Amino acid sequence: MNLRIASGFSAGIDPYPPNAELLGSVNLPFVIVADHPGFVGASVKLIQRMLINEVVGLAVTKFFFNENAVEVSPKDAVRYYTGTLNDDFTFTPEHHGVLDPGGWEGFYAPNVMEDGKGRKLLWAWMPEVARGAFEDAKGWAGALTVPRQLSLTADGRLRMDPVPELQRLRGPCERLSGLILCAGADEGDAALANAGSACLLQTRGRALELLAEIELIDANASFGFKLLHTDNDEECTVIVFEPEQRSFHVDRTRSSLSPSTHKAELRGEIDWAAGSTVKVHMLLDYSLLEVFAGYDSCLSARMYPLLEESDRVTVFARKGSVSFRSLQVWAIRSIWP
């Protein structure tokens, strides 16, 4: 079919282009919808061009809510839908999920491009909203997420991977294998705050890449990671995975001693079955954290630790037993010479 679409940006205020772009005959299996609570049901007038698996797709990131074509990028979680665009231009969704629930706390105004290799790459803005009234973080306008390579799985779900070029920044690596953690072993340790059995890694730092392959031994198992923490957890950022609840979250309650920074918990979705083996991939760059949970769920967050010694890394089991088949932690080198 001949599909006419309007190209646009992913945030801001722009007029609706008078002439839509003709993309030709396409089969369209992929659509991302930016859901905005205040404008549910509003007419979508601006969309962004995207190519997935050599066919044209759409990333819907604009909502047209008056005749002046004002558009808005949602400040909360952006949902995606994959499915088929029918000949009558109706869309049949087949799968859906959250692109990234970070919102203003870490993931805003996503944009997509195709590079020279034909890869479909997504970036988003990680704004400074989470600093609140924290004066020491003033003067910055945020940063970008790492580029995420988009693809579709065999069953039509969205997959998001950090681009492999980031591996060039890997420095010294700490590797563990066969690590089994069982909750209850350290219940009397106040520093673990009911985290269960834990392993403090030798690696220290604020710029780290962590990649773990984990077997979920128990149906009720929950586990996680403590980053940017001191020896006594005076400051710490905690990432907890709860497969039984089909969710994971970033706990920033003690991420910073500053009372001004945001402390709200950020929560994402997972769908992991007991007995399965999953991967967790995290990129930490001082105040920036990106969590890839199985590569089909991502969460971006900002934290502002104050203490120089907030550089420890711990893995733990909070409930049940988990087996870390492999755990790798790299120090990330600076891109600057």
From TrEMBL:
- Bilayer-crossing residues are none
Q: Keywords, A to Z?
A: Glycosidase, Hydrolase
Q: Write the Enzyme Commission number(s) for this entry.
A: 3.2.1.26
Tell me the InterPro entries matching this sequence. Answer: ConA-like_dom_sf (IPR013320), GH32_Enzymes (IPR051214), Glyco_hydro_32 (IPR001362), Glyco_hydro_32_C (IPR013189), Glyco_hydro_32_N (IPR013148), Glyco_hydro_beta-prop_sf (IPR023296)
Picking any one GO molecular function of the record gives: beta-fructofuranosidase activity
Q: Where is the Glycosyl hydrolase family 32 C-terminal domain?
A: 197-330
Q: Where is the Glycosyl hydrolase family 32 N-terminal domain?
A: 63-162
The GO annotation for biological process reads: carbohydrate metabolic process
Q: One Pfam annotation, family name?
A: Glyco_hydro_32N
Concerning its family, UniProt says: Belongs to the glycosyl hydrolase 32 family.
Q: What is the name listed in the Swiss-Prot or TrEMBL entry for this protein?
A: beta-fructofuranosidase
Look up and give the organism this protein is from.
Paenibacillus taihuensis
